[in-house]
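Subject: design request, 435 residues
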């Protein structure tokens, strides 16, 4: 009698099933992932029989971290609910920050306007028409003081999405903390400071690559000593995905950028274990539910193996890929904006099931204008419902073991061998730009 683990019996039954399915009618559509990858009708033990559980999957909090970077998952600590906010004047954004904190947000995420992102003051002639439009306008330390007025910086984590002028903004933030009586070593949060993706995706850069990389490595060195709880880089795939990449390209180019920062830090004389534990990552969560979950799981495994075996990191914290997730802005529609609530909920759930450390959920109306109070509250409540009412946070990697997800996580497009071509191309491009 065949048993569940009888490979030959399973193989025979799979062949019989596929023969029957081949004669059945199916819809006349192309069955692929959002990224265009072909998807089989059914996944069985046949697709995962070559996976080495201990080497490729393992346990949460254990190398290679496929199932998550913490032993207790969300039972130990819930993900940080961090809504991106910033518009108008520092006073306006300060009010929105306090509104979000009052409604249960657990971390701040700061959006800056285009002049600030480009290192220009609000009264610069080139800033006309852009001040406070897509983020908060910060031109001075005084503006930064207003932005965080009444918000104890030792009690919140703050993310700041800015790149070329990141050193100035971080200096402002440290100065505001000092005025509050908060020591630098107590500050927690992240500054994006990922200039490499600006050259290919967002285009908000000021300096050429070589001096930009020097600034970033200097910041990593400084933060490792003076701000040990602060992430000096958030390597961002989000903007690459929003610019039109596939999930595989997002993952490959993001990891390539991250490895470029690692190599630059080592070349500057730092030990990899001095700065690597504080490098974080930022990924998109698109609409292909299973592809996104597989992307996060594959990312952790690839990163852990590269950090340990290629760069010689000894500290397990250097092996762990910590990441923030934001739902996909490019999937939102101006028409029937209420449907965006559903899209965002599905994308947020994928991020959670993929093991994200923090999460931003888009508001339903932000394709039309800055999010309204009602819309941003619904976006935050979406996270809270997932956390408190669905049960998904009770079990670590609850979707792990799915034949489909495990096969997708180990698929050629998401494994180290296939990604080498993408990462090599990206890193060669980076080196040419720096030379």
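Subject: RE: design request

Done. Sequence follows.
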């Amino acid at each position: 009698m065949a048993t569940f683990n009888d490979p030959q019996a399973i193989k025979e039954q799979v062949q019989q099933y596929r023969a029957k399915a081949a004669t059945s009618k199916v819809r006349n559509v192309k069955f692929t992932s959002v990224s265009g990858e072909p998807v089989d009708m059914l996944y069985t033990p046949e697709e995962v029989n070559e996976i080495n559980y201990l080497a490729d999957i393992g346990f949460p909090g254990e190398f290679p971290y496929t199932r998550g970077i913490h032993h207790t998952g969300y039972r130990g600590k819930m993900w940080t609910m961090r809504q991106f906010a910033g518009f108008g004047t520092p006073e306006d954004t300060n009010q929105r920050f306090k509104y979000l904190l009052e409604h249960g947000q657990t971390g701040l995420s700061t959006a800056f306007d285009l002049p600030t992102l480009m290192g220009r003051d609000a009264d610069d002639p080139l800033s006309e028409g852009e001040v406070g439009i897509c983020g908060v306008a910060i031109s001075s330390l005084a503006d930064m003081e207003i932005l965080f007025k009444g918000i104890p910086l030792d009690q919140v984590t703050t993310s700041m999405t800015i790149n070329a002028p990141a050193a100035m903004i971080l200096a402002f933030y440290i100065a505001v903390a000092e005025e509050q009586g908060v020591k630098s070593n107590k500050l927690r949060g992240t500054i994006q400071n990922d200039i490499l993706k600006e050259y290919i995706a967002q285009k908000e850069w000021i300096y050429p690559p070589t001096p930009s990389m020097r600034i970033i490595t200097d910041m990593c060195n400084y933060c490792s000593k003076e701000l040990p709880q602060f992430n000096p880089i958030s390597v961002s795939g989000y903007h690459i995905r929003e610019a039109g990449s596939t999930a595989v390209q997002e993952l490959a180019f993001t990891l390539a950028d991250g490895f470029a920062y690692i190599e630059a830090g080592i070349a500057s004389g730092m030990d990899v274990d001095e700065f690597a534990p504080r490098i974080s990552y930022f990924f998109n969560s698109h609409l292909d539910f299973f592809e996104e979950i597989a992307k996060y799981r594959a990312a952790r495994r690839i990163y852990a193996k590269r950090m340990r075996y290629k760069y010689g990191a000894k500290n397990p914290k250097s092996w762990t890929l910590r990441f923030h997730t934001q739902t996909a802005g490019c999937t939102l529609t101006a028409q029937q904006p209420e449907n965006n609530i559903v899209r965002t909920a599905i994308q947020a759930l994928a991020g959670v099931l993929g093991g994200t450390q923090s999460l931003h959920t888009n508001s339903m109306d932000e394709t039309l204008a800055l999010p309204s109070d009602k819309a941003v509250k619904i976006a935050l409540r979406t996270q809270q419902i997932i956390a408190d009412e669905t049960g998904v946070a009770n079990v670590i990697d609850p979707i792990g073991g799915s034949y489909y997800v495990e096969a997708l996580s180990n698929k050629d497009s998401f494994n180290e061998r296939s990604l080498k071509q993408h990462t090599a191309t990206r890193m060669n491009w980076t080196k040419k730009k720096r030379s």
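Strands lie at 80-85, 107-111, 157-161, 188-191, 230-231, 233-236, 279-285, 323-327, 358-360.
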